[in-house]
Every structure is written in C-alpha cells, then in structure tokens.
Amino acid sequence: MPLVIENLTKSYGTRKVLDAVSFTATPGRVTGFLGPNGSGKTTTVRVALGLANTEAGTALFAGHPFRMLTQPGSSVGVLLENSGLHPGLTPVQHLRIAAAATHTHQGRITEVIDEVGLTDAATRKVRGFSQGMRQRLGLALALLANPRLLILDEPANGLDPEGMIWLRNLLSEYAKTGATVLVTSHVLNELERFIDDIVIITGGKISAQVTLSDLPTGANLEAFYLDTLRHMNQENS
User: Fold this and answer.
1) For residue 165, what are the CA distances in angstroms to 119, 135, 190, 191?
2) Which phi and psi (to 5°) does residue 119 adopt?
3) Could you list the residue ranges that cross the membrane (predicted)?
4) Domains of the chain, each with CATH number or no CATH
5) If residue 221 lies in a helix (H) or strand (E), which one and from where to where?
6) Pairing relation of β-strands 56-61 and 3-12?
7) Cα–Cα distances in Å, from 200 out to 75, 184, 222?
8) Fewer CB atoms inside 10 Å of the end CB: C or N, the chain?
C-alpha cells in the first residue's frame, strides 16, 4: 500500500502552512519525513488521514483517500503525538477496544503486547506508565491489525537507548514484509540507521527528496539535513 501525496496546499488565515507538498512513501521501504518544528510535517500527516482539510491536492492510500478505504483502521496503523490513552484503562483493555473496532482476532492482543515489550505491564493501568511505556502501547495499537502501511509521528519519544534499538529493528523488519513505513523524527542519528528514503519539508515546502544511499560522499543524515535547512534559509532571506 503506497502513500502518494500530491500538491497538498493548506493555509491558516493568510499563512500558508503547506505549499504544493508532494512525495511518495513506497512499500518495502522506511521513509523518514523530516523538518523543523512548524515546518508542516504533522499538518501533512493530519491532512492525509482526513483529520484536517486541504484547499488543494490529494493523499492517496493505494489509490484511495483514507476516508474511502474499506477498512481504514486495519489497513493503516497510526501513531500520532499525544495520542489519547485513557489513564484508567490497561493495555489489554485498550487493545480489546481497538480489536473490536478493526475486526481483529482477540488472540492478536497477546502477540502484539509481547512484540512491544509490555507483557509485564499488560494489566496495569496506563496512569502509572512512563512516556516510553505509553509510546510502546501506542505502537501496539498501530501494529494490532497488521496494517500494510504505518504512519508514526515521533515514535521514539520517551524511549531509552534499548528502546531505540528495539524500534529500529521492529520498523526495519516490518518494512521487509512489504509494508510501507512513514516516520517523522528529530532523532536523526538513530533514524539514519534504518530509513531508506528521506523527505525534508521546510516552511511548508518539500526542500529535498533523496534515498539514504544517494547522500553526498562523506555526508551523514544530520549534516545533509542541516545543510538543506541552511540552503533554504538563504533562499528565503
């Protein structure tokens, strides 16, 4: 299930927050969607998921808008920053609700809890969870129905170094099954270890699209990202 975004344009009042944003997240690959705070990353994701309107452009999941997918909840797994988790519910309870909504077999709940490393906390209420544990539960909800496309907004938030390694391996292996993975993150040195494609957005415009293997000789992701931002700032000054 590819995600094809073409010419997304959106304004808040007189301020244009998305300016003809276009890129593709490809099956079997992890796409890193990067940019500074306020650059339009989250707005692009929200528009793609039908959570915000757009004045122009399209976001198509295997050729269809998100709202037109037959089973959107099981086709696309989503983790957004500040995703709502009920403090009085346990991971098992959250996942039972999600399984019913996505018509996922209840037996999958135990599997996904184990996948994200929450087995020992499966029946504890979320109100006592650390940020990292909440992120793992958010990932469990995204992975529950074995979707063919993952959209993860800052999935590394709150994870310790061991959790970072776990996340890296999880997403790399998930993409190898033929799934599409789109990740936003500010942790560039970690992101560089597992992404395949790079899309950089600044000021609501796409400023770079390359594969990781096509970076200039001797440049790492952080250097390329910072150089791209400097170049765009110079153009806009």
Assistant:
1) 18, 14, 8, 10
2) -55, -45
3) none
4) 3-84+147-236 (3.40.50.300)
5) helix 221-236
6) antiparallel
7) 26, 10, 12
8) C
CB-CB neighbours of 128 under 10 Å: 9
Residues in the chain: 237
Residue from 43, 38, 44 nearest 23 by CA: 44
Residue 17: is its pLDDT beyond 80? yes
* pLDDT tens figures, 18-40: 999 999 999 999 999 999 888 89
Question: Which amino acid is present at 22?
Answer: S
Q: Look at residue 229 and give its three-state secondary structure.
A: helix
What's the pTM value of the predicted model, to 2 decimals? 0.91
Query: What pLDDT score was predicted for residue 237?
Result: 63
- The residue with greater pLDDT, 216 or 100, is 100
For 182-225, what is each residue's pLDDT tens digit? 999 888 888 899 999 999 999 899 999 999 988 877 778 988 88
Largest CA distance in the chain: 56
CA-to-CA distance for 29 and 42, rounded, in angstroms? 20
Q: Which two tokens stand for residue 178?
A: 């033929």
Q: What's residue 138's pLDDT?
A: 94
Contact 183, 31 (CB under 8 A): yes
Residue 236 has pLDDT above 80, yes or no: no
Residue 107 CB-density burial (10 A; 0-12 exposed, 13-18 middle, 19+ buried): exposed
**Nearest 10 degrees: CA dihedral of 71, 79, 184, 116?**
-110
